[in-house]
Amino acid sequence: MKVSVIGSGSWGTALAQVLADNNVDVNIYGQNESEVNDILLNHKNSRYFEDVVINENIKATTNLNDIIYSDIILLAVPTGAVESVCENINKIINKKVIIINVAKGFHPVTHERMSEVIKRSIDEDKLKAVVSLIGPSHAEEVIIRLITVINAVSDNEEASTLVQELFSNNYFRVYRNYDVIGAEIGVAIKNIMAIASGMLTGIGQGDNARAALMTRGLAEMTRYAVYFGGKTETFLGLDGVGDLIVTCTSIHSRNYQAGYTIGKNNNAKEFMKTNKTTVEGIQACKVIHEEAIKHNISMPITEQVYKILYEYKDPKDAIESLMRRDLKEE
After folding, report:
1. Structural domain boundaries in the chain
2. Does the N-terminal or the C-terminal CB of the chain have fewer CB atoms within 10 Å?
């Protein structure tokens, strides 16, 4: 079984190590030659993990054509790159493969979920199945082999079982989940809530406010997903409340850190102008806001985060707007 990981960033490297620890033949493709050489020669990815020594059996390459021998291709790239990467893969592969996606978000133009983008971008005769490997996880913990539990989400039971077996070990446990719609929506919307959580901390709010945010944020995530066919019970699991907790409370979360910076400044204008890191919740917020309006789905927290990010409303005023909404039953 040969696995290629597309993307030599933190998550791609961490997941490659899980596979290497399980004696799977794994090869990382990256565009950054220095990162690839660091992995090959020093058994490190110093850009992301400083002095952490990674499994020496991980191979790395800057030649995308090396994926031709793969049985499984894992996409560890930002949501905005998934479509173009899949189109390139489609030109190279000559047999059916399983595509594993780990990106959490939506296509910025079509608003498709990631599995939909992949299925549209790769020919049917080259695609065995799509599996999303998603849930509460930070690469910074996985790379040092701290316990992590996530889901293999797919409409193909055989493929999700294979992925589950390939990745599971004594520090990395994988469950199966077949609610593709609910799981993919849940792990994307929680990034919006993580931005909001960081904002709360940045402006000086405490645990009470964050607990309220996460609880009402979970209600929004569930409401939105169920409208599009997701299952309510998914949001009591790893791809709902689990991912929400870890992303809203951890310093490892880019979305939380982005929100914290915005909250400290009580305005998003400077951050939006200068940010160069991938903060998936920013684009997801735009997509969810537009779809919520289109389908008349109540998403009050998402609406206020959108106004902060794209209309530069002060976070303190946004919180006031939420607190002053008409009183109602929970």
Report:
1. 2-177, 181-323
2. C
